[in-house]
Amino acid sequence: MSAERFQPRATRYDIRAAVQYRLAAGGEWSDGHTVNISRTGMLIDAAGPDMPPGSSVHAVLAMAHTADTKWMRVLCRGEVVRTTERRPGGHGGLVAMTIDEYEFLPPSRGPLNDRPPTIDSTGPSIRIH
Predict the structure, then answer these.
(1) Which member of 40, 72, 119, 124 lies 3.0 to 4.6 Å from 65 by CB, making a disulfide possible if both were Cys?
(2) Which residue has the higher pLDDT, 37 or 70?
(3) Cα–Cα distance between 55 and 99 in angstroms, integer?
(4) Pairing of strands 126-127, 118-119
(5) Number of helices (H) and strands (E), helices first, in the chain?
(6) In the 8-state DSSP scheme, what is residue 25?
(7) CATH numbers and ranges of domains, the chain
(8) Could you tell me which of 89, 94, 16, 20 has the C-alpha nearest to residue 51?
């Protein structure tokens, strides 16, 4: 038996939240939404260009934080763990990333501004307008 201690996988929550992400080295922010999220990572339905596994990545989530629907933004820093096959044209697909650290952003920082997201009519996803 290994001396390593068993650590169960973090509970994943099926939450669709608006997200913008990019390589940590910089570049344009791309839109997407979370498929699920846990304390250690998230799965993003990504609309942007390829994000190779091992890449450092930043992602900003828009999330409700009170019953009266005030919105907050959370900057997550991590690494791409895996991706799925790209859609036609080389864009889109799923990106799994770790969440190594995070911070709550004031309204004026980051790619998502302080305007509240609106609900997309095609389902429970949140789209930033």
Answers:
(1) 72
(2) 37
(3) 13
(4) antiparallel
(5) 0, 9
(6) T
(7) 18-107+120-127 (2.40.10.220)
(8) 94
The Cβ of residue 123 has, within 10 Å, a number of other Cβ atoms equal to: 7
The answer, yes or no, to whether residue 70 has pLDDT greater than 60, is yes
d(CA 58, CA 60): 7
> Shortest CA distance to 79 belongs to which of 29, 28, 41, 38?
41
Measured between alpha carbons, how far is 44 from 36 in angstroms, rounded to an integer?
8
Output 117 or 51, whichever has higher pLDDT: 51
Residue 92's contacts (CB-CB under 8 Å, 6 or more residues apart) are 45, 46, 47, 48, 86
Angle 116-69-59 (CA atoms, 0-180°, nearest 5)?
A: 55
Q: Pick the residue with more confidence: 80 or 117?
A: 80
Mean pLDDT computed over every residue of the chain: 77
Share of the chain above pLDDT 70, in %: 67
Which residue type occupies 123?
Answer: G
